[in-house]
Structure formats: C-alpha cells, structure tokens
Amino acid sequence: MYKLKKLLFGWDYIYWSNSCDNGIAKIFITKCGKIVYYRYKITKLIDVIKNPNEVIWLTCHPNKYFK
Question: What global pTM score does this model have?
C-alpha cells in the first residue's frame, strides 16, 4: 500500500520499531527543517529522525533527507 502511495503522491515511508511496538509511517519535514514521522497518529506523538540508521527506509534512500 505504501508503495502505491509513493507512486501516486510521491510520499516517502519508513519502518520504525521500538521495544513495545512497530509500524510504517510517512515522513514529514517541519518548517524548522527537521525530519519527523507520526509514531502514533491518534495521540499525535511525533518522533524526530536524528540518525538515518534509526529507521528502515522503505521508499527512498536516506541521502535524500540527510546530505
């Protein structure tokens, strides 16, 4: 499904994981230039990607965001 959204809209997706949960999320760039994703969209918990190795990049290479 995320590959179809990448094809139609050009959105990039990552796979995130922690000790109690995991999921696929869309990448956003804030006005400040931070690369973020919604870990839990219902509670609006946003995580910042500081290191490209923190997540698995599904639809693009991390060099697109980390130069």
Answer: 0.85
